[in-house]
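Lab notebook, bench 4. The sequencing result for the construct came back, and we need a structural model before the next group meeting so we can plan mutations. Quick request posted to the team channel:

Model the 3D structure of this chain.
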Amino acid sequence: MKPTSPLLLALALGLVACQQAEEAQPTAADTVAPAKAPAAQTAPAIAPPAAATAADGKPSFDCAAAASDVEKLVCSDPELAVLDRRLAEVHARAKAAPGADQTRLAADQRGWAKGRDDCWKSVERSRCVSEAYMTRTAQLQIDNGETRVPEAAAYECDDTSKRFTVVYYNDLDPKTAVVTWGDDQALAFPMMAASGARYGREGMEIWEHQGELSVDFYGNRFNCRAAGATAP
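Done. Here's the predicted structure in token form:
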């Protein structure tokens, strides 16, 4: 079933992937992504957005009133606290945008906070929370038209069961890859790579290396090449 907003599905997929290994995952893949991925990242695992390097490690909310285990974690982790402030800034801009649907924004934010708080169930709790913040921040920027929508370029994949696309938003903070496989979608973020360009989140990863794109979409693995490229 295809949701009203595919980017909301991306958030849901990402948070589901953060849960215990017994939870369900989506299925297999196909073709189309950007002609050339950006340069490889050098930060460990998921690279935090540029804003997360700020010195002040306080979140946007009052830590004395932190109600959930995850909010308490954010208060104790300066990097997560900066991600919280970054989201608060982007959310405030979305609310102030002309014609903004305040009711929908408030409902979406409440739903997101509930999903973020479910990260206490995750084995990698900090990573789950970090990806939840980056996903919501990127989603709001895209939905609010804060960046142009880049054009996706075609790939030829060895699994042609579903259409596969990737759109790289290099102007966002955090940089974001919107990965779509059939009706399923997830937002991925820069990861460490010895060479090529690698994006991922818990449970999924794409890695462009020497002209080939390796894909692991929640356990569904396949390879793609740029359309028209000659195999070595």
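The two ends are 39 Å apart (CA to CA).
Will bring this to the meeting.
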